[in-house]
Specification:
Elements (H helix, E strand, L loop, with lengths): L1 H15 L9 E12 L8 E10 L4 E11 L3 E12 L6 E14 L4 E2 L1 E13 L5 E20 L4 E20 L1
Length: 175
Amino acid sequence: MKKIIFAIGFLFISFCLIGQDTERNVAYTASFGTGIAMNEPSYTPLIFHVLAHYRVGNRFSAGIGTGLSFYETTLIPLFANAKLAITQPRKFTPFVECGSGYAFAANTNANGGFHLNSSLGVQYVLFDKIKLQLAAGYELQKLERLKKSENDYFTVGFAEKLTHHLVSVNVGIVF
């Protein structure tokens, strides 16, 4: 639990940083999405991510993110993310993005696991510093949950390892 609190605190501090240049070097993204499961047992998750990006160049940025993923249990991913604009920034800017890290389970009967999220999308400039983004991609989430089976004669418990593969679709705001 201390790791989760530390990670969320670290992310919060990064949100409070202000660049010294008049041009903004830090951008924040909040996105909401879902996906189509490609495995058994299939489960359609709800996904919410919050990211802080530091602009390294005109088209490349890197940062960290966290959020909530609602599979059969609630997961809290913490991941590093890289984003590359395919063209020079314009009104419509296509991009490719990839994030990788670990997801912590909020439930005591589950363990988190490896988290990977890659996507291809487009950003649309709404206002001067606010952009709308729409992306589609692939998400991989590994986790382990404890299962229990009982009958009149015995009780047995075991760990079930799950890997979720899904085609994800999300919409977000960059500010």
